Amino acid sequence: MRDKIRESKNFLADSRQLASVDPHLSGLMFCVFKPVSIRSRHMPGSNDIGSYIKALFPTAQLDFEIGNMLDCEIDKEQYQLWISERARSIAVNNPRRDGERNYKRVLNLLGRLTEYRGCDTGISRTLWSALHTIAKILAHAPDWANFETGPMFGGRNATIADRLCLSVDRTKKILSSLRSFGLIVHYHRHANGRRWIRRNSDGSVSGHGFSLLPIIVMLDELEEHVARWIQLHHEAARLQSKIKGHICSFRQSLRAAHGDDWRAHPGNMQCQKILGEAMVAKRQSDVESLKAILTDLDFASDAKPKINPPERQKWHPTPKPSPERIEVTGEPKGRSNDGSADTDYGLEQAKLDENEIPVIFPNSALYLQMHRNWESAVEHLARDTTLSADTWHQMQRTLGKRAASISVMIIAERLASGEIRATPTAYAKGMLNAARRGDLQLGRTIWGRRELLAA
After folding, report:
1. What's the domain range around 367?
2. pTM (2 decimals)?
3. How many domains does the chain have?
4. Backbone dihedral region of 148: left (phi > 0), alpha (psi from -120 to 50 degrees) or beta?
5. Backbone phi, psi, residue 282, to 5°
């Protein structure tokens, strides 16, 4: 008996010595050596054990950015604790209303990330698309305002693979990649890896699976990043369009000065190089590089040879009919200014020649050279001006192919000159509204550009 007492005293002395080295071990030793009843529901040293675990994972100092990859399992556990700490600091007033709002924001965000190929987050479009599909499955609104567990899914790999229309092996790799990028975390990970989620009668959930808590915790940061990237993307497209306008104008000068030998001129080779650099900068949304290229072109534009535009007859505006004389009827003749059912919006009076288009619309000249037919060139121009496909088809149905093509060229010129403050799609819809009211006059725009070139 005395030997056992002596051994216990020596062991306690060793434990005190360890506690003096690491203060977090004091609670652990206390939990081991203090006699506790087996029926006791609360361990006396539970708080000390919690502080010891937090000391092992310093989550408050975690430096994580969107797109970083968590390589080892310790980093993933540390990241999960960091997300839980951030989630506990978020207040929820109305779970139902806040959950519906968060769910709509998440779907909108993931849709834009899928559409714009990840928005330079370093995460592929495939992963964002898979996460978007998984988020559509979890449509229970209060879960998107639950910052303790977050929206959870516990389906088997075969079930998720069926929703994603992928193989099971490919689905496993996608789930592993989503966890490595910190987009999903484990919730009460089961020892054998199986996942199941049960919803209780009070609305809470229990079980083992994955949680989308990181998405709703970092929702504001992701939305800010996506909005900033899309703004840079549109700005880069606008600058690239202005660069193309300068290049087209310079090539017209080369064609006028050197005739058929302008393609072999060193200036044309330099134009090709500048266009390639602008294309690479536009893909990377490098606005600073595009501005530098545009500044160099502005300085070089003073030394280029000038083109004398062909003389045209002066435009005399046609007086508009007074509002009292306009009669709106349901017949086709009443929907047009000139009494016909299919108006040309002043293009017949403008008498636009195809050889005149590169002079009046220099941004369209390069596309007309690249493509053999008119329609392909205008479709390419519409894509580069970030005009949506639906709006382009609507313009063709409403205005006709010829008027719609001229409208796209006008939009490209005004986008290059900085006259369009909104988006090209919004500007095109404004032109469609003007056409429905009978106020769209493309011929006046053509005559105005002729007078501007002549001046």
Report:
1. 309-316+343-455
2. 0.55
3. 4
4. alpha
5. -70, -40
